[in-house]
Amino acid sequence: MTRLLGLLALCWVPIVLPAQAQDTVASFYRSRTMEMLVPTTAGNDFDLRARLLARFMPEFIPGHPSFITRNMPGGGGIIAMNHMATRVPRDGATLHMMFPSVGTLQAIGTPEVAFDLRAFNFVGNTSTSPNVMVAWHTAGVTSIDALKGNPLVLGTTSGDSGVYYVRALQQLGYKVSVVSGYAGGAQVNLAMERGEVQGRATNAWAAWKATKPDWVQDKTIIPLVQIGLTRHPDMKDVPLLLELAPNADDRALLDFLSASVALSRSLVTTPGVPADRLNALRRAFDQTVVSPAFLAEAGKMGLDMSPLTGEQSQEISNRILDTPPDVIARAKTIMLAP
Fold first, then answer.
1. CATH number of 131-259
2. Where would I find the H helices in the chain?
3. Per-residue pLDDT tens listing for the chain (338 residues)
C-alpha cells in the first residue's frame, strides 16, 4: 500500500500522440457521437464531472466527436459495469465514470459481477477525494468517538459501500446502524432533512463541496470519519477509517476497504479497445484536466480536481485486485453479509 500512496504523488506530464496515429484515430472519431455512461442519478458529483468531461474532452480527441450522457444507476455501480462489459461495442466510443468500489466487489467474488476490471482500460481519474461518513447537525454527535456510547442511524443508497463501512465500525464496537435502499444520494440527503436518518454513511468530500457547499460551510453536516488513504486538508482532525484499527490484521482489512477511494472518479472504457484509440483517449483526458477553460468551469461548479493518468489508475486498480486471500476472506464477512 506504500507504493499505492506513492503513485498518488507522482508527477504527471501529458504525452503527445504521434501525427500518424492521430490521423488513424481521427478517421474513427470524426462525426461520431460518443456515449458517457454515469452509474448514478443526475445532479450529483459523478454526474457533474462526467458531463463536464463530455463537454471539454472532444476538443482534444482527434476527430473532435460529440458526446451524449446516459445515467444508469443501481447495484452500487455493478449494473453499469456489467452493461459496459456485455453490451457495449469494444471500440472506444463509450466512456464510463465508474463507481470506485467495483474493483473491491470483484475482488471478493460478488455474484452479480459479470465483468473483469483487469480487462477494462482506465482513461484517467479526476479525483482522489476521500469518502466521508457524516452526522446531521441535530443528531448530537460531533466525533466518531461519541459512537462508542451513542447510537447513530445512517442512510445510504442500494448497494453502496457505505454499508460496508458501517459493518466495519460495528465490528470495532461503534454503535452505528444503516438504512439502505435509497434510490440516490439526493434521496438520502432528503431523508436526513426529514429526520428519517441521522446521517449519511458515505459520500465523497468533493461531492459534498460541489453539491451542498452551504451544508459544509454552515456545519449542517458533521464529518465523523474519512474513508481513504490520506486525510483531506479540510479535515485534518477527522480520522481515517483505517486509523481506527486496533491491530495490524484489522488495519489490513480497513486498508482494503478504503483503497478504492484512490480511484474516486475514474473514467474507463471497455476491454479490447485498439491501442491507438486508447492512447488518444488517455492523452485527451490528460490535456482536458489541465486546460484553463476546463479548470475554470470546474472551479465555478465547486469540483475539486486531483487527477491521475489512466496508467496510474490502472496500476492502483490492479493492486486492489491483487489483495492477499486472507484479507479478502475477512472482507467477505463484511461485504457479503446478509
1. 3.40.190.10
2. 2-8, 19-29, 45-56, 78-86, 102-107, 162-171, 185-194, 205-211, 213-217, 248-259, 275-288, 292-301, 310-321, 325-335
3. 555 555 554 445 455 555 555 678 999 999 999 999 999 999 988 999 999 999 999 999 999 999 999 999 988 899 999 999 999 999 999 999 999 889 998 999 989 999 999 999 999 999 988 999 999 999 999 999 999 999 999 999 876 778 989 999 999 999 999 999 898 889 999 999 999 999 999 998 988 998 899 999 999 999 999 999 889 999 999 999 999 999 999 999 999 999 888 898 999 999 999 999 999 999 999 999 999 999 999 999 989 898 999 999 999 899 899 999 999 999 998 888 77
Residue 132's φ and ψ, nearest 5 degrees, are -135, 135
Q: Look at the domain 2-127+265-335 and name its fold.
A: D-Maltodextrin-Binding Protein; domain 2 (3.40.190)
Instruction: Please report, to the nearest 10 degrees, the dihedral formed by the alpha carbons of residues 234, 52, 123, 157 taken in order.
Output: 60
What are the structural domain ranges in the chain?
Answer: 2-127+265-335, 131-259
